[in-house]
C-alpha cells in the first residue's frame, strides 16, 4: 500500500497542475481561466485577462472543460458520507466485508460547462455547472447537472466591486491543488466551498478588503441540518488580502452566524407548532408552568463561525499554497468539513460514555433522562500544496492536509454492538454516527503530475492516501471493555469477553487511491 504512493517518483517528472488561476498564460492570453480550472480562482487576482469590449456592448463566451478520469481505490472511500470515487474526502470505516474490497470506475461527470456574459468592463455574469451528484453512492451516466457557480459582479470603479449570487465562499480563500475537482480535499483543509452571497470588494493600495453575507445551508451534503429559510440570520464574512507583489498573497478571513435548531418536540414544517400536543387536562397547571413548557419547546440557537489564515507564493517555476483554519460548527455554515453540531440526550450521553455499563436504579434514571443537549464540536484544519514546473509540458506536485476535532469528548461514538462487521448482504450508509462513529480526525496526502501535449490538453496522474479516525464508545476501550454490567449499590457485576481486536472493526481506516485521466479546456 505504501509503495503505491512512490509511483510518481518512478516516472519522469510530469508537470504543473496550473499556475495561479488568475494570472494569464503567455500562450493563451485570450482564455479566461475563471470557473474552468480544476480548483477555484482564489489566487493573486481575479480580473479577467480578456480585452474588454466598449462599456455599452455585450460579449458572450463559452467556458468549460471535458474531464474524464479512471479512479481506483484499494478499499471504500466516501464522498460526504456516501461510497463514491468521484469526490472522495475520507476513508470509510470497515464495518462490512465489502468495505475492504478494491473498487474502480471511469468518471466524466466532473466536467464543467458554463458561459460568461460581459457588459463592457463594468459587469460580468457567470453560469457554470458540473455533473456530479454526491448524494448517490455510484455516480453514473444518469447524474444530473449541478449548479457550481451562478453570479454576477459589478465594478463601478477600479477600486470597488460588488458580487451577487452563488460563487466561491469569501471565507477560506485559498484552495489546495488537486485533480479531485469535486471535493478539493474537502475534509482535510479547504473549509470554504460555495455559498449564495451578496458582497463587496474594496481595493486600497496593496490590500483588498471584502465583506459578504450569505446563506447557512448545504450544497453537497445530502443530510441538511438546518432550514435555511427559517435561519433568519445570514452568515457574515470578512476577508483581507495583502498582495505585496504579483507573486505573493497573504489572506485572512472570518465568518460567523447563529444557527437555529428546532426542539425535537416541535415540527419545523408547521412553523414550530407542537408535534405532540398535550391533550390531557391538568387542574394544577398555572400560567407560569405553561410559560416554562412553551420556552422548553422553542428553538435553540447555536453560535457558529471560524477564522482562517492562508498564503499563495510563486517563485519562478515553483508555487506553494496553504491555509489553516479553526472554528465551531463549521460544517453547518459551509459544506465541506467534519464538525456538524450534534443533538444528544443526557441519557444517550450516559449510555455511550465510560460508565454506560452501570446498572441499578441510578443507572436506569440516568439512561432515561431525555433532556436534549446540543453539542458543538470545534475543528482545526490545514493544508499545504507544492507545485513545480519542470518545463512547459511537464511538472509535479505534492498536497497534504489534516482536519481534527479538538474536543472529541462531545462526539457520538459507535456502539460495538451496532457494528455490522461482515454482513455483506445489508448496505450500511455512513450518515449514522451511532454505527460508524463520528469522524474525529482525517488526513489526506498525495502526489500528482501531468503532461500537456497541447495548450488545451492535459493528462494527469494523482495518488492519494486517506486516513480517517472514527470515535468508539469509551467503555469499549481499555479495562472497561471487559465489564458487561455493574451495580454500584450491590457491588455485583458481570464480566464479558471483549473479543479479539483482529475480529472487530477498527476505529482507524486507511485507503489508497489512484486517479488517472485527461481533460480538454474549450474556453472561447
Protein described:
The protein is mainly beta and 524 residues long. Helices cover 7% and strands 42% of the residues. The protein starts with a helix and ends with a strand. Residues 1-37, 39-43, 45-50, 220-225, 266-272 and 277-297 have low confidence and may be disordered.
Number of strands: 26
Radius of gyration, in Å, reads: 25 Å
Unreliable stretches covering 5 or more consecutive residues? 1-37, 39-43, 45-50, 220-225, 266-272, 277-297
Classify the secondary structure makeup into a structural class.
mainly beta
| Overall pLDDT confidence | 77
- Largest sheet features: 16 strands, antiparallel, barrel
Number of helical segments with 4 or more residues: 6
Which percent range fits the helix content?
Answer: under 10%
Strand order of the largest sheet: 1-6-7-8-9-10-11-12-13-16-17-20-21-22-23-26
Distance between the termini: 43 Å
Strand content: 35-45%
User: Quick one: overall form?
Assistant: globular
Blueprint of the fold:
Blueprint: H1 2-5, E1 58-73, E2 77-79, E3 82-83, E4 90-91, E5 103-107, E6 112-119, E7 123-130, E8 146-154, E9 160-168, E10 194-204, E11 207-214, E12 235-245, E13 248-261, E14 266-267, E15 273-274, H2 287-297, E16 300-315, E17 318-328, H3 330-333, E18 342-345, H4 346-352, H5 361-367, E19 372-375, E20 378-389, E21 394-405, H6 433-436, E22 439-454, E23 457-470, E24 483-487, E25 492-495, E26 508-521
Antiparallel strand pairs: 1-5, 1-6, 1-26, 2-3, 2-4, 6-7, 7-8, 8-9, 9-10, 10-11, 11-12, 12-13, 13-16, 14-15, 16-17, 17-20, 18-19, 20-21, 21-22, 22-23, 23-26, 24-25
Amino acid at each position: 500500500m505504501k509503495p503505491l504512493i512512490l509511483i510518481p517518483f518512478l516516472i519522469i517528472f510530469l508537470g504543473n497542475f496550473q499556475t495561479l488561476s488568475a494570472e494569464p498564460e503567455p500562450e493563451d492570453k485570450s482564455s479566461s481561466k475563471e470557473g474552468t480550472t480544476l480548483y477555484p480562482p482564489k489566487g493573486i487576482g481575479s480580473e479577467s485577462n480578456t480585452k474588454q469590449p466598449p462599456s455599452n456592448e455585450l460579449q458572450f463566451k463559452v467556458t468549460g472543460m471535458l474531464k474524464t478520469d479512471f479512479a481506483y481505490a484499494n478499499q471504500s472511500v466516501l464522498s460526504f458520507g456516501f461510497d463514491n470515487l468521484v469526490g472522495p474526502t475520507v476513508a470509510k470505516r470497515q464495518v462490512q466485508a465489502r468495505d475492504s474490497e478494491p473498487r474502480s470506475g471511469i468518471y466524466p461527470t466532473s466536467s464543467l460547462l458554463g458561459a460568461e456574459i460581459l457588459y463592457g468592463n463594468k459587469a460580468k455574469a457567470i453560469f457554470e455547472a458540473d455533473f456530479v451528484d454526491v448524494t448517490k453512492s455510484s455516480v453514473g451516466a444518469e447524474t444530473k447537472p449541478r449548479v457550481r457557480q451562478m453570479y454576477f459582479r459589478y465594478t463601478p470603479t477600479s477600486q470597488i466591486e460588488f458580487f451577487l449570487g452563488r460563487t466561491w465562499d469569501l471565507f477560506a480563500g485559498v484552495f489546495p491543488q488537486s485533480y479531485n475537482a469535486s471535493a478539493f480535499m474537502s475534509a482535510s483543509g479547504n473549509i470554504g466551498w460555495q455559498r449564495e452571497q451578496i458582497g463587496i470588494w474594496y481595493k486600497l493600495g496593496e490590500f483588498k478588503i471584502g465583506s459578504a453575507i450569505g446563506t447557512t445551508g448545504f450544497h453537497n451534503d445530502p443530510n441538511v441540518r438546518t432550514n435555511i429559510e427559517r435561519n433568519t440570520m445570514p452568515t457574515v464574512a470578512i476577508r483581507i488580502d495583502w498582495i505585496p507583489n504579483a507573486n505573493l498573497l497573504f489572506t485572512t478571513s472570518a465568518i460567523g452566524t447563529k444557527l437555529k435548531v428546532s426542539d425535537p418536540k416541535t415540527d419545523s414544517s408547521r412553523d414550530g407548532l407542537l408535534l405532540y400536543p398535550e391533550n390531557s387536562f391538568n387542574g394544577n397547571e398555572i400560567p407560569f408552568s405553561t410559560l416554562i413548557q412553551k420556552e422548553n419547546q422553542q428553538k435553540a440557537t447555536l453560535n457558529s463561525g471560524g477564522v482562517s489564515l492562508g498564503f499563495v507564493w510563486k517563485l519562478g517555476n515553483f508555487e506553494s499554497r496553504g491555509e489553516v483554519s479553526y472554528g465551531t460548527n463549521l460544517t453547518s455554515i459551509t459544506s465541506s468539513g467534519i464538525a456538524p453540531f450534534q443533538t444528544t440526550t443526557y441519557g444517550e450521553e450516559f449510555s455511550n460514555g465510560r460508565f454506560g455499563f452501570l446498572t441499578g436504579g441510578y443507572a436506569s434514571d440516568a439512561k432515561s433522562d431525555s433532556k436534549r443537549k446540543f453539542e458543538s464540536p470545534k475543528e482545526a484544519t490545514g493544508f499545504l500544496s507544492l507545485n513545480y514546473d519542470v518545463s512547459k509540458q511537464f511538472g509535479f506536485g505534492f498536497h497534504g492536509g489534516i482536519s481534527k476535532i479538538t474536543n472529541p469528548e462531545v462526539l457520538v461514538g459507535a456502539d460495538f454492538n451496532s457494528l455490522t462487521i461482515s454482513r455483506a448482504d445489508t448496505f450500511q450508509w455512513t450518515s449514522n454516527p451511532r454505527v460508524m462513529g463520528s469522524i474525529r480526525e482525517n488526513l489526506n496526502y498525495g502526489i500528482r503530475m501531468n503532461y500537456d501535449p497541447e495548450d488545451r490538453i492535459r493528462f494527469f496522474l494523482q495518488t492519494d492516501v486517506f486516513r480517517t479516525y472514527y470515535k468508539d464508545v469509551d467503555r469499549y476501550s481499555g479495562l472497561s471493555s471487559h465489564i458487561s454490567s455493574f451495580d454500584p449499590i450491590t457491588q455485583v457485576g458481570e464480566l464479558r469477553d471483549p473479543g479479539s481486536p483482529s475480529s472487530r472493526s477498527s476505529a482507524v481506516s486507511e485507503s489508497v487511491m489512484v486517479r488517472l485521466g485527461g481533460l480538454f479546456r474549450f474556453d472561447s
